[in-house]
Amino acid sequence: MEHPKIKIAVKNYGTMVAELYPEMAPLTVANFLKLANEKFFDGLIFHRVIAGFMLQGGGYYEDMSEKDTPAIRGEFRANGFAQNTLKHTRGVLSMARTMDPNSASSQFFVMHKAAPHLDGQYAGFGKVIEGDEIIDRIANVETGNYGYYMQDVPRTPVVIETIEEIK
């Protein structure tokens, strides 16, 4: 099976290429590609970065205002979606969500290191195949708190220039 590929260009950091796995999470991949093709992610930031864990982005602008989009079904084992067996190892892309298993929308995360406790609990849908060093560069930014409600926010914004499908 030919996997769709995306390019994630991060301002001042470089570009990552990831392949997506519709056989693991078909709705998630379709939603992500739709958002990418609509330029939804352009100018958003990685707003939560935890070295040794993950980099989360796709929902906030540099000024920390939120950009939202409708939620989709959570395609992971604990939510009755048994076909998604993707492990949360380094480089894996997965969907962020609240406690509601069907709350994933546009926010995604890239694994910096393996986190087996996420397996079957979040919808993994792809993996970085080029630009692995970009993950490390972003993971090592200085972070702090933003207001009283958000932690692990990069002190200098890590801006997603574009996420685009590679045809």
Secondary structure elements and pairings:
Blueprint (H helix, E strand, L loop, with lengths): L4 E6 L3 E7 L5 H12 L8 E5 L3 E4 L34 E4 L12 E4 L12 E7 L1 H8 L3 E4 L3 E5 L5 E7 L1
Antiparallel strand pairs: 1-2, 1-10, 2-7, 3-4, 4-6, 5-6, 5-7, 8-9
Overview of this protein structure:
The chain is mostly beta strands. Helix content is 12%, strand content 32%. The strands form two sheets. Strands 3-4-6-5-7-2-1-10 form an eight-stranded antiparallel sheet, with helices on one face. The chain has a two-stranded antiparallel sheet with strand order 8-9. The model has no long low-confidence stretch (mean pLDDT 96).
Adjacency order of strands in the biggest sheet: 3-4-6-5-7-2-1-10
Q: How many E-type strands?
A: 10
Spans with pLDDT under 50 lasting ≥5 residues? Answer: none
What is the number of helices? 2
How would you classify the helix and strand content by structural class? mainly beta
Shape designation:
globular
Rg estimate, integer Å: 14 Å
Helix content range of the residues, please? Answer: 10-25%
Distance between the termini: 15 Å
Q: Summarize model confidence as the mean pLDDT.
A: 96
Fraction in beta strands: 25-35%
N-to-C SSE string, H for helix and E for strand: EEHEEEEEHEEE
The biggest beta sheet is recorded as: 8 strands, antiparallel
Compact overview of the structure:
Helices cover 12% and strands 32% of the residues. It is built from two helices and ten strands, in the order ββαβββββαβββ.
